[in-house]
Amino acid sequence: MQEDLRIGTSIIPYDILLVVYDNSLNKNKLTVKALFASLPYSVMGMRYHFNTLIKSGWIELQYTNADARIKLVKPSGKLLYQMDIFLEELQGAFERKLL
How far is Cα 86 from Cα 46, in angstroms, rounded to an integer? Predict the structure, then answer.
């Protein structure tokens, strides 16, 4: 079942998801602090969308054993699944365009 990601007109949640997904693909550990520092938005605006993405199951938080204050941001299975579908569709579109 394909699930749409509709979060209004803001691009902030999409940017958050792309950063989380990219770090996951590259096997980088991404902290909440590093995520917020990597995007050019206000902390207040990002916090709202970040919490919405957690509540709706697109991203997950994981606490580290070394320091309980540090939280890692991970893509959820739902996000990984939807990105796989999107990338397959995108690849198909490019292949059709080249024909």
Answer: 24
Q: How far apart are CA 82 and CA 2, in angstroms?
A: 7
88-99: burial string, b at 16+ Cβ within 10 Å, e else: eeeeeeeeeeee
User: Residue 3 has what pLDDT?
Assistant: 59
Q: Does domain 12-98 have CATH number 1.10.10.10?
A: yes
Residue of higher predicted confidence among 95 and 59 = 59
- Rounded Cα distance between 19 and 23, Å, is 6
Q: Domain locations in the chain? A: 12-98
Pair 61, 54: CB distance under 8 Å: yes
Please tell me the predicted confidence (pLDDT) of residue 77. Answer: 96
